[in-house]
Design a protein that fits this description.
binds magnesium ion, binds adenosine-5'-diphosphate, 681 residues, alpha/beta, eight-stranded mixed beta sheet, seven-stranded parallel beta sheet, 23 helices
């Protein structure tokens, strides 16, 4: 099958350049990928209902004979209706088709058909509008429905899949080892492909699905486990000296015991020498992850090695750069910043210094991954807000060194079962303690009638020297959020907050402007920062004490929690005000949870209950490759089997070089992206 992945989708009959482009849009660029493009769902034509028993408003199949002549009504130019009755021997139903001029010839009285669609109408007058249909003796069973895109319908995809299937050689090599297939009684690849696309019955479909779910999770686990068991690192990356105490004396505050514990765990990992560190630090917003990162960068520098610190946005990278520089440069440690907006000249200079080991801590965005960024001696790679990065990117940065230590930091608390899955390759340290003096953020939910009161409340705090955030209303689709933000900002500036200094921050601003606004705010020149959600992650201005969120119902729970995390970061009492007029139950639960607790783990559990893990995975908060068929909620059991089997397989063949495993290895790289390859070894 591997070779089919090398055949461009355009080689198929009927797939020209234009259609190939549409296929690519769906993530399908080769014939092999098309075969792995599993149906999104199925139309079950295999169990036709009687008209009487057919469910309402839910797609289903009905078997019935034509019971009247087809009448033709032209209702306007370009729109002709064709109506007729069908009967299943007991009941009658009306069918309407649009612009189908073959209908009168096709639907002859007495002939039996299968109709697939939604039944509407009343009990006495059932109707089906624009159903799909097949002659009853055609023997259609279960039809695949593919995710389509404009210009490429599910049926067209189905045709292409049929063709691709016919290209499969008589004996296809199956990447799933035979003993595994036997033990779990999975169908062979070719059979499974046939059954997943064109199942004859539900049992076959279920068998095939189980196989592909297993295969997907198995390969995912292989990838994750292999990340974990990277080859023994070169001993020269071992830290021989622990300067943590020295670093703590540089800090303007005493580290919390959770921070100390996390630093110690990392230092232990990095001084062991056998394997490089692979650790996740999970800590709620404001728990002080940056200081932990700084402690490690300090130690690594003292051990004559470099660190790379990657953040998901420029704002964050700059913030880290500022705080690490002010902390570390007095100790003679050199920091530098590299982002997409670094000028060419500065970039050139930075890269040169990096190669000459004149830079100890290299902070930046994805720009750090670009070619030309070469470290002299990379000892530690840190990624902040880990869920924003793919596993592949983490590995790509690591590949810039000789198997360096890895630390990922995340504020997204993840329930345990999922953590096992997502971070299966990492050890975990948890920062379960906030710095002392933090008071929980009081959260209020008010309707828009109380907005003026909320504004007065904000003014009172501004007058006593504090600062505030206001998150702009989100607008309905179609209008531009940007225009709305601009308008909202101007209004606040001119009316409610005239006499105060108000700043605006949004995603479409040039980086220079963003930087200016952010530094204006962190230096206190700007009193109120009106912002779209670009401030969501990581921004740290301890003097800001109020977070007001307009249209709070439009945000997910985790996002609200992240936003709230921007306040309550200093010793001042802080507040979060959620403005929302929404009344539906789900919103009430969400906003209620925000008012009830400040605890990120509780918020995450509640979020999971409300949205389900499927959504959690869908929203890509984890940085794993997309899953095409497995569902974390319903396939938990298969996940566990897959994990066990992956362990077993790797214990027998750690680098998957056995001929029988070569296909798995290739699939693994395909799934995680080639980019990660260098980091795996
Ligand atoms: P996060 O974990 O969300 O990344 P940060 O690292 O940005 O949190 O830290 C939040 C704020 O808390 C920063 O202003 C930081 O200086 C401060 N801080 C961190 N650790 C401590 C501590 N032990 N005592 C007091 N303040 C601290
Ligand atoms: Mg942070």
């Amino acid at each position: 099958m591997a070779s089919l992945f090398d055949i461009d989708i355009q080689q198929l009959n009927g797939v020209g350049e234009k259609r190939a482009q549409l296929f690519r849009k769906l993530g399908v660029s080769s014939v092999g990928a098309l075969l792995r493009f599993y149906p999104r769902t199925y139309e079950d034509w295999s169990h036709p209902y009687s008209i009487q028993e057919a469910p309402y408003e839910k797609p289903c199949c009905i078997r019935a004979a034509i019971a009247s002549r087809v009448t033709e009504t032209r209702i306007r130019k370009g729109m002709t209706l064709y109506k007729f009755r069908v009967c299943d021997g007991l009941s009658v139903m009306n069918i309407t088709l649009f612009n189908n001029r073959y209908a009168p010839n096709l639907f002859k009285e007495g002939k039996e058909f299968l109709f697939y669609g939604k039944v509407t109408g009343t009990f006495l007058r059932r109707e089906m509008s624009a159903p799909l249909f097949e002659s009853a003796d055609h023997g259609v069973r279960i039809r695949p429905i593919y995710s389509q895109t404009e210009g490429l319908s599910s049926r067209q995809i189905e045709q292409a899949v049929r063709q691709a299937f016919s290209w499969l050689p008589a004996s296809v090599k199956d990447d799933l080892p035979a003993d595994l297939r036997e033990r779990y009684q999975f169908p062979h690849l070719k059979q499974a492909l046939s059954d997943i696309h064109f199942p004859k019955n539900q049992e076959q479909l279920e068998q095939a699905r189980r196989r592909f779910v297993f295969e997907e999770l198995f390969i995912l686990q292989l990838g994750l486990l292999r990340l974990k068991s990277r080859r023994k690192s070169e001993t020269h990356l071992r830290l021989c000296m622990d300067s943590t105490q020295e670093f703590y004396r540089l800090l303007p505050f005493a580290p919390t015991s959770a921070q100390k514990r996390a630093v110690a765990e990392c230092m232990w990992d990095m001084s062991q020498g056998a394997v490089p560190m692979n650790r996740l630090i999970q800590g709620d917003v404001g728990s002080g992850k940056t200081a932990v990162a700084a402690a490690l960068c300090y130690n690594v520098a003292k051990n004559q090695m470099q660190s790379a610190f990657m953040a998901p946005t420029e704002i964050l990278a700059e913030q880290h750069y500022r705080s690490l520089t002010s902390l570390l440069s007095p100790a003679g440690i050199h920091t530098a910043l590299l982002t997409g907006s670094t000028t060419a000249a500065a970039r050139k200079d930075t890269l040169k210094r990096l190669q000459n080991r004149e830079i100890d801590v290299m902070i930046g965005t994805h720009a750090l991954l670009s070619e030309g960024v070469q470290f002299a001696r990379l000892g530690l790679v840190i990624t902040d807000e880990q869920h924003r990065f793919g596993v592949g990117q983490r590995a790509a940065l690591a590949a810039k060194g000789n198997n360096p230590h890895l630390l990922v930091m995340s504020a997204t608390p993840i329930p345990r079962t999922l953590a096992l899955m997502i971070y299966g390759d990492l050890d975990v340290s948890i920062l379960d303690e906030l710095p002392p003096g933090r008071q929980p953020v009081d959260t209020f939910w008010v309707d828009s009638g109380k907005r003026q009161r909320a504004f007065r409340f904000i003014k009172k705090h501004l007058d006593s020297g504090r600062q505030a955030y206001i998150v702009c209303p989100l607008v309905e689709e179609g209008e531009s959020n940007l225009a709305a933000a601009q308008q909202y900002f101007e209004q606040l500036q001119q009316t409610d907050f005239s006499g105060y200094s108000v700043g605006l921050l949004h995603g479409k601003m040039k980086n220079k402007e963003k930087e200016q606004v952010m530094s204006g705010f962190s230096q206190g020149e700007i009193q109120i920062l009106v912002s779209t959600t670009v401030i969501e992650v990581g921004v740290d201005v301890p003097n800001a004490v109020i977070m007001l969120i307009e249209n709070a119902e439009r945000f997910g729970l985790s996002q609200l929690h992240q936003l709230r995390g921007r306040v309550g970061r200093g010793t001042y009492k802080s507040y979060c005000i959620l403005i929302s007029d929404a009344q539906n139950e789900e919103t009430k639960r969400r906003l209620g949870a925000m008012c009830r607790t400040n605890n990120g783990f509780e918020i995450a559990e509640e979020d999971l209950k409300l949205r389900g893990p499927g959504d959690f995975f869908g929203s890509r908060q984890h940085g794993l490759p997309d899953l095409k068929i497995a569902d974390m909620m319903t396939d938990m059991e298969i996940l566990q089997q897959a994990q066990e089997e992956a362990r077993r397989t790797l214990s027998q063949d750690p680098s998957l070089c056995h001929p029988e495993h070569r296909g798995l290895r290739a699939e693994m790289f395909r799934l995680f992206g080639r980019i990660g390859e260098g980091g795996w070894n």
